[in-house]
Amino acid sequence: MDSAEIHESSSDWERVKELVLAAQEEAPDDLEAWLAEHCSEPAIREEVLRLVAASAAAGDFLEGSASERHLGLPPPHPARIGRYRIIEEIGAGGLGVVYGAEDEELHRPVALKVLRTPEDSSGEMRKRLRWDARAACSLQHPNIVVVHDIGQQDDLDYIVMELVPGDTLKDAIPPEGMAPQRAVRIGLRILDGLEAAHAAKIVHRDLKPTNIMIGEDDAVKLLDFGLAKPPVPLPEGADSPQTIEGRFAGTAAYVSPEQAEGKDVDARGDIFAFGCVLFEMLAGRQAFEGPSAISVVARILGQDPPKLATLKPGIDPRLGDIVQRCLRKDPAERFQSVTELKQRLAECAAPLRTLLPRMDWRHAGWGIWAGMAGTVILLCVATWALTRRETVPEPAFYLTRMSSDGELTEDPAISADGKFIAFSSDRQSHGNLDIYVQNTRQGEATRVTFGPANAYQPRFSPDGGQLVFRSDIAGGGLYTLPTLGGDKKPRLLVAGGRDARFSPDGQWLAFWVGEEGYSLLGGSAQAMYIPASGGAAGLIAPGLEASASPVWDPTGQKLLCVGRAKGDVAPSWWLVDFHQRTATRTALGGTSSMGVALREPAGSRWLRPLAWLPDHTVLTAARQGDSNNIWGMRVSSEGRLLDPPRRWTGGTAYETHVSAAIDEHGAPTLVYDALTVTTSIRSQDLTADGAPTGESHRLVSGYSEVGPASLSADGSKLAFSAAEPVRQFIYLMDLNTKQTEEIGNQHILRSLGPLLSGNGQWLAYSLDNTGYLISSKGGVPEVVCRRCGYPTDAGMDASTMLFESGAVTNQFFFCTRNQTQQPVAHVADAPALVMNHGRWSQDHRWILFEGIENHQRAIYLAPVTSSGDVRRSQLVRISEGGYDAWEPVWSADGRRAYFIADLDGFRCIWGRRVDIQSGSAAGPLFPVAHFHRARESVSISLPNPVEFSLSAAPSFLVFTVAETNGEVWLRQLRPPGSR
Predict the structure, then answer these.
(1) 8 A C-beta contact, residue 480 and residue 486
(2) What is the pLDDT of residue 374?
(3) Are the C-beta atoms of 281 and 212 separated by less than 8 Å?
(4) Residue 319: its pLDDT value, please?
(5) How many whole angstroms separate alpha carbon 260 and alpha carbon 250?
(6) Distances in Å between the alpha carbon of 610 and those of 501, 615, 672?
């Protein structure tokens, strides 16, 4: 077991921490002998020894006056060093002394940094001092101290810097913490200096309050680059300090976890240190505290800092989010660049601007007028005070909330002239979604659809006269009607279509057919086009096995889409020539572009383009860390990335859909939604013959993105997963006692898909295309299949299991504990069939499964044969035609199949009797649980479709339900109403 494995094991890591703190208290003379007596595990002893050795953090130059620390009197100091006359001692630390001095040749005040004792001059400290000078000299920036000279006299090494009047940041922080706006102002200036250092490929590695000087008007200077990481690897034998050769360096309370462990450090180590500094500025205390350096390092490695909101109630939650993200243990979970961090912090420089509620001014009294005038004056003064010293890194924008009724409002679009927006909402029906149109400057929203099923994804024609939208009625499709509705009924353009986009000239519509949530397996989705007035549809990219989400370039000659070619491991973004129908793979849409790590948004398996603006900016929704926002990236007509991706919105909700218009000044106006989703596991009681009785009720709530639900055969135990930022947890609940225990967790964004065995003793799950089995009591997981998908059936005792087969879609894998892995229910004559959610019948003669073919989903039975192969003609369809059905499960007695279907235009749970002897449906479908409200669903794209599944016990059924609310926001670079 190595160090990394110890940190993955929470119990081992807790033991390491106990031993470290005990060793600190007892201070044994022979630590190795003491450890041998107290611990029998060699790997744990080695980790304790390493951490204790790492606690010898480097000192700093400005910890305080040496005379005050040691003698209580001003110490003697040299009268002169070189041409510099010493005036006073400014500060001292473990490495040396800093003097205030005068350059007698140039007649200017300077600061001299001198090694504390001459005997240090020939060794490591000399190297650090010289490296500090060289690193700082290579950086020219207003927020980095200027180095004038470096020299040696009488075995004293020194560097000469500008004298920065003021205090260290440590001294400037009051006990209760700074005012947030001052902390933001100073923080932005610190980041300006760090950004310049990182641009020169220099990582500071020792950022802390005592290395930051605060001058007049909160001017900032970064000091002490003695631990700076060089821009390129140094040649062997180079004159560099040991602390930049991969060993532990920095000061304990501000050092990143990877730096504390002696690992390679990049700019994200400085971002962690900045998070510690910002926390201290706001809270007045360190983020990680302890009685000793080693205890602080242990907390940095193994514990999270306190939430700012608990220490400073009422603080801007955006600041808390920024600090928490900076202080993630894994560098990949932090901000990936100072530029990105600075952009987010700049958004906190002033509160969001929103429109005031409407008032009837005719009945407003003098008091109201005076109050409003006073408020405006105060706002003006506050804005002037906040901005008079600031350089705003991005143009100021104005946010207007276009919906504020607490309903579900989502999926907005804006007309090309920016005068109207359209969106879907359940505000009047409190059931299905309808389309509404609203003037962006005044007036109420007008409802333009009145259908019995959900209507969403509205899009304006370029001239603003027509709307195209998706409706789920009669199996779903694209419909059109005049923008303001009138008396005309919607007209069907194309069945099955979704997510339409008009070409810039208004002649064509690009769209796609298929289902969201799948990994674009072959045949699961296709991008298509039709004339805008309707007609025959054609494939946009016939050379791709699957494609989706097409958007037009500003010329209307090309499109971007997400697609998968034959043999691809994952989807990519493709540039399609509309006239030639040829697709070229681009480097866009990956998990990392130009150093900014972007991941697919919540509820999706891929990043997708949402709009391509005239200035060549492509908008997309993406997740970074635990935020889900709208991002923009400039893309050439050849599909090359011109600039790094930039965040365009910064809220904490799910910002997933966006539309944009360009005004006469060339400024973009955005309209986007901000959704909040809460998930829970519900239970539906069943009668003896499997029919529903009573209303469903909550069984599990209070977790983030909870699901899927998996029951033991007797219904006494329930397994489920829950998500925290970039980590998935597996829990087991005893339904008799309601006690819940954590079984394990993994650093992964998507669900692990845990599935409980019938006896409740084993859990199967999937991670990185590998199937695992773990005891429900915890322990070490064992591998049961490779290159496979999610588990779908763990059997009664996990001796025989079913897994989805991953890349080969028309089969399942039969797996055993000894890693037997072979195809089963392989439909050789149906290569385009995608098979999911396979469930064995009790006698193992049949497999109940969801099949997807030609963009339609249905429930089938497949016989289990000795060869593992079946023919299409042997499949028995359990669901009927004319609707989609998915995610089946057997009843506890094996006589019924339950599944989700949109039989009545909504996604509800249905049941049907099955004759196991003949392998056929035996009776009509019957409803189990209805979900006719758009905000309440058992299968939506948020959070993740795989998290919605059914599980049955003898007397009840469990399933995951998501409840969604949302608002629509307008983002403008010019004040609302300006021309």
Answers:
(1) no
(2) 44
(3) no
(4) 93
(5) 8
(6) 9, 15, 11
Q: At what angle do helices 42-54 and 31-38 cross, to 10 degrees?
A: 140
Do the Cβ atoms of 879 and 859 come closer than 8 Å?
Answer: yes
Angle at 722 between CA 759 and CA 651, to 5 degrees: 170
Residue 276 CA to residue 223 CA, distance in Å, equals 17
Q: Read off the DSSP letter of residue 331.
A: G
Residue 858 CB neighbour total at 10 angstroms:
22
pTM above 0.70, yes or no: no
Measured between alpha carbons, how far is residue 342 from residues 345, 360, 655 in Å? 5, 41, 20
- Nearest-angstrom CA–CA distance, 510 and 499: 8
List residues bridging with 898 in a β-sheet. 889, 911
Contacts of 649 (CB under 8 A, 6+ apart): 629, 630, 655, 658, 670, 672, 969, 971
491 SS3 class: strand
Structure tokens at 826: 């392989």
Query: What band does 304 get if pLDDT is binned at 50, 70 and 90?
Result: confident
Q: How far apart are the first and last CA of the chain?
A: 67
Instruction: State yes or no: pLDDT of 843 exceeds 60.
Output: yes
Taking CA 958 as the corner, what is the angle to CA 954 and CA 963, rounded to the nearest 5 degrees?
A: 165
Q: What's the number of CA atoms in the CB half-sphere (13 Å) around residue 115?
A: 24
Residue 307 predicted with pLDDT over 70: yes
* Residue 65 reports pLDDT greater than 70: no
SS3 354: coil
Nearest one of 456, 573, 581, 475 to 520, comparing CA atoms: 573
Structure tokens at 701: 């709530």
More confident site: 598 or 954: 954
Asked whether the beta carbons of 545 and 523 are under 8 A apart, the reply is: yes
